[in-house]
Design brief:
The protein is α/β, with parallel strands linked by helices and about 325 residues long. It has ten helices and 15 strands. InterPro entries: ADH-like_C, ADH-like_N, ER, GroES-like_sf, NAD(P)-bd_dom_sf, QOR-like, Quin_OxRdtase/zeta-crystal_CS.
Length: about 325
Amino acid sequence: MSMAIRIPRHGGPEVLEWQAVDVAPPAAGEAQVRHHAVGLNYIDVYHRNGLYPLTLPSGIGVEGAGEVVAVGPGVVDVAVGDRVAYAGGPVGAYAQVRNLPADRLVRLPDAISFETGAAMMLQGLTAQYLLRRTYRVQAGDTILVHAAAGGVGLILCQWAKALGATVIGTVGSDEKAALAQAHGCDHAIIYTRERFADQVKAITGGAGVAVVYDSIGKDTFMDSLACLRPLGTMVTYGNATGPVPPLDLGLLAKMGSLYVTRPTLFTYTAKRSDLLAMSAELFEVVQNGTVKIEIRQRYPLSDAAQAHRDLEARRTTGSTILLP
């Protein structure tokens, strides 16, 4: 028997239940992983509350790091004893032990701890595709990062700064502003005190930014469009305040022939070759110190409900991990 968080129905943090579960031997193509750490991400909230519905009852969680303890027939990508990490489906990471497709696992370099591995994979791979593929940031670009003191935000700020960009970030407090600025954010806008679109225009002399990276969703979408330069790119990759409403595409023409995209990590990593290449680039920038993974909160896995409450209340900064 092993322990895991299960959800019998969609709802608030109270639906997260700590239960004993049976873990079968891994099937063909699967590996069994004993977690040392599990990542907490906002997509977990969407799975829990039903914005992204699951087939219930269900496990939850999409990111973890640990050791391979068994493999099923036909597995060639990993072996027993390998240190591994992963980000993406199938859900079920909130568990001490689990089975998952072996081709979704990436070997974790010895220089990167299990805790860092669990904290960096989903957020770090997200930052990788946002900066290097969705809109390829170049030296001299000015960019806007929402939630700049969050897990993805801190990675985006550091990595974009290393690429030669000027980074504008939005945050909710002076403390978060200081944290973002310590991680490469050139201009931190406290959105609770000032309208960020006005501040971006002031900072850029009215020119606007090349790209907006927006994980907030409904509350920031229209003002984010107003921050873009002509031919700028709006990247909406999260829904912390709810989904973006339907958009009149004619507005994109009027506002400067803008681009809008809604990417997902799961599309970018669907091919194992892409997953490995993206992971290698992420591991490189972490190991050489370009990007530091800030684990700011740790919770027992059994206390996942409190972790969700704190995440939704915006009481967290940087990355958060759950410890089995």
